[in-house]
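[scheduler] slot 2 assigned
[scheduler] job type: sequence-to-structure, two independent chains
[scheduler] chain ordering preserved from manifest
[runner] begin chain α
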Amino acid sequence: MSWFVLLRWIHILAATAWFGEVVTINLVLVPAVSRMTASERALTLGRIFPRIFRLASILSGTAAVTGLTMFAIKFWGNWLLLFGTWSGRAILAGATLGAALTLFHFFLEPRLGEMICVAEKEPDGELITKIVRLLRIIPRAGLGVIGAIVLLMMIGARGLPL
């Protein structure tokens, strides 16, 4: 097995796990937390979501690093080729969205994690309500973005399904 194939598998596994994590947050965790009492919310948010945020950062970082490495190996010196085909443009668009979402995980999501830690230590009904409201919006947006990334990368890998 070549290093490129190994990189591709690591990339696909990390991206798939990341996608699955975002689906789980949207369809299982946020609805469950929304139905809890305020005290249960604070405890659950503090125990689960900081770990989930770290896992998302690890998975997105792994997908980004392996993706950039494959990109460099495959297109080094020939980046203009990406603009000339549907597949190339899909890869560029997916990579751009992936980079943006990865940056979100590393730079903006920690702020939400800090809010959750504060709410766990000192349960405040207003803060917990704000956190749950953000958790209803942010993961949904993330699911839309990561869904677009998956679609674009599938098009980039296999072409348009015509």
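[runner] end chain α
[runner] begin chain β
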Amino acid sequence: MQIRRTVPARMGFFLIALLCVLAFAPLRSMAAPYAAMVIDARTGEVLHSRNADARLHPASLTKMMTLYIAFEAVRNGEITLDTPVRITQKAAAEPPSKLGLRAGQTIAFRYLIRAAAVKSANDAATAIGIAISGSEAAFARRMTRTAKAMGMSRTTFKNAHGLTEAGHLSSARDMTTLGRHLLYDYPQYYNLFSRQSTDAGIKTVPNTNRRLLAAYKGADGIKTGYTRAAGFNLVASAKRKDERIIATVFGGKSGASRNAKVAELLDLGFRRAPSRAPIRKPERPVYAGNVGLGGDTQVAALSGAPKSSLRPLGRPSATTQVASAVAVVADQNSDRISSGIAAAIAEADVAPTAPPVETSDTRPALRPDNLVLASTEPASPPEPEQEVITRLSSSGGHLWGVNVGRYTTRYEAEKILLKTALSEMTTLDGSLRKVSQSSRGFDATFQGMTREQADLACRRLQARNVTCFMIGPS
């Protein structure tokens, strides 16, 4: 009898244990998959990878692409850092992490960038997307197009912030690629990712990656991410002497264990990377732009130089030189010209002092003696260092100007003036483009501005990574 009681008891205990195992097995299977990638940032060489091509939830690593497109939009003149952005109800309603934006309020675009980069604010990320593309869905399509242009073949974006959504997936390899593009395509903004905190307009916000930044020697970015489906993700970069490593982790079990794993991977990268290596910057992706109102047809606006002559009638030689200079700029520089390029070139042309007079041989009137045209001298490399002149001759009370460099030929100075005028028409409108020759070269300047106009123009040009210095009355 005692044996009969013991066997059922033991069987019952076994069945209970088995049921517990079966019950908790799905919970274990729900743990986010682990993936990792380590590269030498200078060359792009892969130093370590594990499960790097698995399509996983990127969480807030998504904001790396949101920020990349924000930088791209500023660079291409779609928006400026000082543009006031009105916050929509959708952006304000995003769940944390968030800046605390209210529907209807306005905030400068630069503060949305800071909040998304440093605090990983979801409301700021959504506001960025809507400000650039009109809706978050359209912005997500642009994100995906840009990812494909970078070679991120395993990535599809559905939103600007990275909260879990069906089909919103990426991989460790793709996010490492994106981190490298942020580093080399927009170095002027990269310092955002290393700030322990930043002023986000309505308050100062701390960096979600501050523990790794403080604990790991040489760490200077880039982006953290967490959702329940994704686990703890991180793309990190660190530099020591001439070496720079980027390491990516998907699926960490906690913030602390993720940071420890990333530090281990960065150490591995520094051990395996050569002390010296050539820097092979990734090729900047083709500018994707926004889509048209009718669907997924890319806007042709910023597609490069015009394919037909836009010169005014009766002035073939002068405008041909200007059009040629624009074509050279478009070929040699990745900057894209806005959809109003036809109007911009017509406006940028030097207008005659009087309309041409019709004669029997249909020749135009003579040009004024003081008309400045692009030189036909062959281009040659500019001096290694650009110096600033502080002379200015102007009239009408507008005694300030800006200098955008000194060049070895008049042709190059004229070319840079035209390109700069087209890219920053808002603040340079009405100023005089002038090339001044001296024994040291040809100075490219915009003249006839107020002090406030010159200061604003310089700050906006410097935001585009254009060398610019104010010049005042002599």
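[runner] end chain β
[qc] chain β: The chain has two domains: 32-272, 314-354+367-474.
[scheduler] slot 2 released
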